[in-house]
Amino acid sequence: MRPVSNLPVLRPEVRGLETLPEPPPRPGDGHLRDWALAPLPLVEEGARRAREGGGDLFRLRLGLPAVVGFSPAWNRRLLGDLQTFRSAGSFSRVVPYLSGGVILTDAPDHGPRRQVVNPGFGRRHLEGLRVRVRAALLPVPAGEFDALAWADRAVLRLLNAAYFGGEFDPGLLHAFLAPLRLPFPLPTVPRPLLFARVNAELRRLAHQRLTRGGDDLLALLAPLPGGLEETRVSLAAAHDTTTHALAWAVWHLAVHPDWHAPGHHPAVLKETLRLFPPGWMGSRRLARDLTWEGVRLPRGTLALYSPYLSARDPGLWQSPDAFRPCRWQAPPPAWAYLPFGGGERVCLGLHLAHLLILEALAALPPLTPVRGDPTPRPGVTLGPTGPLIVRRSGE
């Protein structure tokens, strides 16, 4: 029989949020000014300090308790534990374009809602739209042109074709989506008159689908409860993300012409999305207290994950800042490549984005870079500063 020890049981010490590393705050406003003006250097410095301390979490002072994690373990927990990490209090709530639909639906309603909406965005249905998408491809201009501006126009046409068979008023579609790329906080400003015009156009086109049928995305979404909201929100979520990924991919193909072949384009797109994930930062709110690596995170904390930081972590990727499509000959580190999120809440438009971008790249002639600024510029999405001037090779 073992003797009973009278020594006290030592329990791991649970520390408070204030013990986490953080980037240098500014007097008076903490990190708010840097978050608004230069968020990438801010979070890169926070990640550097966290790594130096052997952790994967750092603190931000944004007017409420906030933490940013970047390890595969953090990403897996945040994206997989839907009871603890809730979407209803995330950044999407404050952007009218994204505040609704399945994006903000939490468990237990998220799964059933997702099953209802999924079929329209599945590979099988989208494959039926491939011919229509190809017919809507924007011609490549002669002479020099800005790949960023060209991608903007091209994606507008492609989304119009996929969602509405090209029947949505192009001018209204452009006016609706343009504010999303304005500097923050302008995308959060309500635009009731503009939204009313867009909703009226959606109702008009939906009525046609309901009475005459159709095979575009609206035809599958219109009959669903809340289907027009899902259409509007997913359209807004798709435009800038797809535009920026396409523009960067075009630039990379001009700079690295050896990769400009349809067989290489999937790897080029994956590497582009690794380096420059349009959804560079995701957010949730804690529905209950959580202890993470000895730190107590209280209920209500803003919990952030960063596909940008995870995909550039030198502990996970060799030469993480280099453009190397050849790295995709092997699977990526688990839960480190998340341009479309992950788990049950993986982006609804994943297959649509791949279809549109790969079709556009396949139609491009050989290109040569002229001049450009591909430096990432974060806003609601991560885009290139631009312009990205290219021309057809040989001109």
TrEMBL record:
Tagged with keyword Manganese: no
Organism: Deinococcus aetherius
The organism's taxonomic lineage, starting at the top: Bacteria, Thermotogati, Deinococcota, Deinococci, Deinococcales
PANTHER family cross-referenced by the UniProt entry: CYTOCHROME P450, CYTOCHROME P450 12A4, MITOCHONDRIAL-RELATED
Family: Belongs to the cytochrome P450 family.
Protein name stated in the entry: Cytochrome P450
Coiled-coil portions: none
Pfam families: p450
PROSITE patterns named in the record: CYTOCHROME_P450 (PS00086)
Region (Disordered): 370-395
Keyword terms, alphabetized: Heme, Iron, Metal-binding, Monooxygenase, Oxidoreductase
Cofactor(s) this protein cannot do without: heme
Source organism, top-level taxon: Bacteria
